[in-house]
Design a protein that fits this description.
- It is a single chain.
- This protein is mainly alpha-helical.
- It has two domains: 282 residues, Serine Threonine Protein Phosphatase 5, Tetratricopeptide repeat, CATH 1.25.40; 194 residues, Serine Threonine Protein Phosphatase 5, Tetratricopeptide repeat, CATH 1.25.40.
- 50% of the residues lie in helices and 3% in strands.
- Strands 1-2 form a two-stranded antiparallel sheet. It has a two-stranded antiparallel ribbon with strand order 3-6. Strands 4-5 form a two-stranded antiparallel ribbon.
- The longest helix has 26 residues.
- It starts with 7 loop residues before the first helix and ends in a 22-residue tail after the last helix.
Length: 533
């Protein structure tokens, strides 16, 4: 079982980042090639091991985009257009296994960090509390994504092989329900938010935390913002689930009503990201190109739904996000109609008529950051909260702010790219932004119904997430049932339309006897606990 195995290379990699971002590639390569130089791990190094273990499923990477997303989440949200083919709504086993294995690599690193931390004396634990708190927040980010895919999975007793002194028979974990895991994470994040507000770092710990933290560079306030923003995301995810509804509403109100105590990600400068400083280093987006633009595989073709929304609203993000097909007459933008026959769709692609993701912004951008949480997402969450609580004016303000922040994010990633191909977009004028938010497909007014407001928010969130935050995108499309997307019906398959969840991968079924307890629930058509119609 992959999730029971601790991958030592990730555990040791934290030591490499202790030399700070100023290390040269040779410094990193030399140290990485000789792990025997490092006799044992520490809380500080293990913290980085946790972050690095999950890095490739955050920073654009070939395996994530080509193996996992190209045939699953991206076409199921119509963030990309694909040519219809049999069984396209059944998740490929290699992609599911890849995500599952990576999640349990991260969890194993985290359990090892917990073990090391718990073995410290009380004074040392207090001194290094920031590592425990930040690692827990990050682990909840990872676990939330996994729960939103599978619905249930081994969690509370998983990743304990090292803790159990290598005893495999004691380390096969039972499956835990998504609602139980969410309850635990929400409780813990609330406690973390309170503890982070008063945590103090000694000079030595502050220096170590800065060098080991590849996400926020040791900025405690950014970790506070990430923690509370993650709470908002998860609380809104469960706001309509009966067992969470009252709690979610109350805690959202508390967070939103007390920004000093519960700061969130509010500006683009506060976006929670893994930045790429040097594409030749181990943190890079070089795999983005082959991940979505491998010759003949078309993982970057535009969907008709996305192109139509951008065109109908004259959205200035059109050129930031897409290029017209190479043979498209007059530079027209055309997306793949999901209801066409697969051969017709493929012919349009082969003829060079289909738009594709802007290479400068995306596939050729070796500096594309790994985005965990953006200010735009916070604003859209605020807009939904205000829409649900009847504050129309505040909903409009937050919604329009989110659109501006989305534009600014894509301007930023386009600007940091060194790609020689694709389209450069230097600015979006205030006039173009104003025209966008006043356009018929986009405009929100205070007097609109709650449902109409939520539909508008959902469409903009979907557009903002696109292929950059695919896991959040699929979760929100399922939760909100917006935007309304049409899909070809695959009558040749037992799964004729996109599924509601992923099923447990085959190796886990084979090796974990506890699977028998949940096998009856393991169906593609079973909805998650928060997916309430």
């Amino acid at each position: 079982m992959k999730y029971l195995i601790m991958d030592l290379r990730y555990m040791l990699f934290g030591a490499l980042l202790a030399c700070s971002f100023s290390c040269t590639e040779d410094d990193l390569a030399d140290a990485y090639a000789e792990p025997s130089r490092i006799a044992e791990t520490t809380v500080d190094k293990q913290f980085t091991g946790v972050l690095v273990a999950g890095q490739d499923y955050i920073v654009p990477n070939y395996t994530n985009y080509f193996v996992v997303l190209r045939g699953t989440l991206n076409p199921w949200t119509q963030s990309i257009g694909v040519s219809n083919s049999p069984n396209q709504y059944v998740p490929g086993s290699s992609g599911v296994e890849s995500f599952w294995n990576n999640y349990y690599e991260v969890l194993a690193q985290y359990r090892e960090m917990q073990r090391i931390y718990n073995n410290l004396d009380p004074a040392a634990q207090e001194d290094r509390a920031i590592f425990r708190l930040a690692a827990a927040t990050y682990m909840h980010y990872e676990t939330q994504r996994a729960v939103d895919l599978f619905g249930f999975l081994p969690y509370f007793d998983a990743g304990m092989l090292s803790t159990n002194a290598g005893n495999y028979s004691e380390s096969y974990a039972s499956f835990d329900s998504g609602s139980d895991i969410y309850t635990f994470m929400l409780d813990d994040l609330q406690a973390i938010a309170d503890e982070l507000a008063s945590v103090e770092l000694s000079p030595g710990v502050a220096a170590s935390f800065t060098s080991q933290d590849i996400i926020n560079g040791g900025d405690v306030m950014l970790w506070r913002r990430f923690t509370n923003s993650l709470r908002m995301r998860m609380l809104m995810r469960v706001v309509e689930a009966p067992e969470f509804s009252s709690r979610a509403t109350a805690e959202l109100s508390e967070i939103i009503g007390n920004s000093e105590r519960f700061p969130t990600v509010e500006t683009g400068e506060q976006n929670i990201m893994i930045d790429v400083f040097d594409p030749t280093s181990t943190i890079n987006s070089r795999g983005f190109r082959d991940g979505i633009n491998s010759a003949g595989w078309d993982g970057d073709d535009a969907s008709q739904a996305l192109i139509d929304l951008l065109l109908e609203s004259n959205d200035p993000r059109l050129e930031l996000l897409f290029e017209p097909g190479t043979e498209s007459p007059d530079g027209a933008y055309l997306g793949i109609d999901p209801l066409l026959d697969g051969s017709e769709q493929q012919q349009l692609v082969n003829d060079g008529l289909i738009a594709f993701y802007n290479r400068r912004t995306f596939s050729e951008n070796e500096y594309f950051p790994g985005l965990l949480f953006s200010a735009a997402e916070t604003s859209f969450l605020l807009a939904e909260y205000y829409a649900r609580t009847g504050d129309g004016e505040a909903a409009v303000t937050a919604y329009e702010t989110g659109i501006r922040q989305s534009i600014d994010f894509y301007l930023y990633v386009n600007s940091v790219s060194s790609a020689s191909t694709g389209v450069v977009v230097e600015e979006v004028s205030d006039a173009d932004y104003q025209a966008l938010i006043e356009s018929e497909p986009v405009q929100m007014t205070p007097g609109q119904s709650t449902e109409d407001k939520i539909q508008l928010i959902a469409r903009q969130k979907w557009l903002h997430f696109n292929i950059v935050q695919p896991y959040e995108n699929w979760a929100e499309v399922r939760r909100l049932d917006y935007p309304t997307l049409g899909f070809w019906t695959d009558n040749s398959s037992t799964q004729p339309l996109p599924p509601s969840r992923w099923t447990i991968p085959g190796r886990e079924i084979t090796y974990n006897a506890n699977y028998s307890e949940v096998s009856g629930e393991d169906k593609l058509t079973n909805t998650l606990f928060w997916d309430v119609d």
